[in-house]
Amino acid sequence: MFVILVYDFEQKRVGRALKTCRKYLTWVQNSVFEGEIGEANLKKLKMELNKLMDKSTDSVIIYSFQSTKYSKREVLGVSKNSQEFIL
Amino acid sequence: MFVILVYDFEQKRVGRALKTCRKYLTWVQNSVFEGEIGEANLKKLKMELNKLMDKSTDSVIIYSFQSTKYSKREVLGVSKNSQEFIL
């Protein structure tokens, strides 16, 4: 499935959050990741983030899409990650 | 259609970007907006952001989905915007 993940971590944990997300998804912009990921890996990513975060201050939103049909991805201005994208 | 918008603006323009996006979408997290929006309003939002941004440093990514069938929205940790969401 295709996933968009956005997070908002306190400064002292954001480095580890970045490292964790980068193992599974592509960094596209400040605190934004995206990519194709399987159910098992998404489960692992969520477990690692849950362990790492302070649930009273940190926030992660995960949008998952079984299909990317009828969807579009558009960039205005500079593309912070020059990689080609599948959407 | 359902839209997720993420931006990365230089400090001096981020206030105006926030104000502009809030006219059309719901703020959900630091530099992340989402919501249902029509074609005409999306066009207006893009025009306003294009006018406001410095295209060599600022970045906006707009993911648009004609259908939110087979999709899911999940929050880990604190939900920065307590509003209920349609996804």
Automatic annotation (TrEMBL), chains A, B:
- CDD domains recorded for this chain? Cas2_I_II_III
Q: Which residues bind Mg(2+)?
A: D8
Sample GO molecular function, one term:
hydrolase activity
What's the Enzyme Commission number for this chain?
3.1.-.-
> Which UniProt keywords are listed?
Antiviral defense, Endonuclease, Hydrolase, Magnesium, Metal-binding, Nuclease
> What Pfam families does the record tag this protein with?
CRISPR_Cas2
GO biological process per UniProt? defense response to virus; maintenance of CRISPR repeat elements
Specify whether Hydrolase is a keyword of the entry.
Answer: yes
EC category: hydrolase
The cross-references to InterPro entries, in alphabetical order and at most eight, read: CRISPR_associated_Cas2 (IPR021127), Virulence_VapD/CRISPR_Cas2 (IPR019199)
Protein family: Belongs to the CRISPR-associated endoribonuclease Cas2 protein family.
Assembly with partners or alone: Homodimer, forms a heterotetramer with a Cas1 homodimer.
Instruction: Give the protein's biological function.
Output: CRISPR (clustered regularly interspaced short palindromic repeat), is an adaptive immune system that provides protection against mobile genetic elements (viruses, transposable elements and conjugative plasmids). CRISPR clusters contain sequences complementary to antecedent mobile elements and target invading nucleic acids. CRISPR clusters are transcribed and processed into CRISPR RNA (crRNA). Functions as a ssRNA-specific endoribonuclease. Involved in the integration of spacer DNA into the CRISPR cassette.
Question: What protein does this entry describe?
Answer: CRISPR-associated endoribonuclease Cas2
> Which organism is this protein's natural source?
Clostridium acetireducens DSM 10703
Q: What is the lineage of its organism?
A: Bacteria, Bacillati, Bacillota, Clostridia, Eubacteriales
